[in-house]
Give the backbone structure.
Amino acid sequence: MYKIHAIKMFDALPATEVAVIRLVDGAFIPFDPANTDAQQFAKWLQEGNLPEPAEEGGTVTQEWATETIAKLLPNG
Amino acid sequence: MSTVISAGTTTNTAYNVNADTSGSLVLATGSGPTTAVTIDSSQNTTLAGSLNAPNTFGFKNRIINGAMMIDQRNSGAAQTITTGTFPYTVDRWFASAAGANVTGQRVAGSGNNQNNYQFTGAASNTAISFTQRIESNNCYDLAGQTVTLSLNLANSLLTSVSYSIAYPTTTDNYAGATIITTGTFTVNSTLTNYSVQIAIPAAATTGLQISLSVGSQTTGTWTIGKVQLEKGSTATSFDYRPYGTELQLCQRYFYTCCLFNYGTNGYYQGYYGGSNALWNIRYPVQMRTTPTATISQPTQVQYYSQGGVWTNTTIQLASYNTGPNYNAGMTDLTVYVASDSSGGGKLIYLTGGATTTLPTIAISSEL
């Protein structure tokens, strides 16, 4: 299971998704296709799973998952 | 004088031997001929020109931490290898177990062999593996070449250790891989050096994976040391690198640092404006890629705002700075410490919080 991690660096800027948190150990995983953990996250998305949203009450869409898979696994 | 064997450039000097009883030998070439190699009676060799060999000099070993000395995660403590997981053990090496958990540990060697890695079997265990993945940048030139894998092995129970060499389908991405070759070493309980030659296919420019495995290690120990992968068809002596060099090679893939001091005189950070307290971590060497960061004891943190009070908080990751920073080639990441609305221009102190267990960040860009 994963949860999107977004943070507001400065008051004037909107929150930015900087990582996904692997809930089993709290690891912060960057959205970098060369990161092995990010590759495993993308494969988990490919299996039809969705992470928890960054904000309580928020939603994570299938479009977000599709874009993320394309970014993290550009070669499929 | 010496016994001289010469290869000259004229008919009369094309091949000539002048022998004496000095016990030393000279090989001479070219017009003259001119001395090229001198081997004295004590077997010391002197070269007049340069030496060209595929694997004689520094960094011939493409395996990092082949001597099992660097152990940033466990510092020599025993580690449980839980079935179904692939935990990293000593640096750069990850393990797996099937059937039953086993333990693994860096252990002392004997003689001039400082360390080995050793698994201890357990009832119902059916397999153990021990694997290192070599970054493509460090083995690209091996594609299309013959390489030699050499290593020390011992097993107090089993007589076979299998090896498998593979390369990933996509550069440094092991979601898919092609097996190059597999084989078996016949071993015994005495630590012994073994070697095998492997033809690396021309397509294997994407990295290499070296995996060792045993079957049912239901008791006893499996010991591994001095693993070396080098270009060429001869197993040469183990490539000893300086400890600091080997550590930095490992830190490209894994690094752990303690964030805060315990007590009120902890590290501090000047901070001006805004409402967030941020902490930058500078990597000792550039990581292979943007790393995964795992914070231990994230709630064991307090911060102090000048003129304020100690406040408990939880540290989180704030951002990755992946591009070259103000020190060329270095990158870092930023940790979010706390939000404080007491106004700009404050100085924030950080401590280890309520316990003596200090928060650390493990930073990993392993393959």
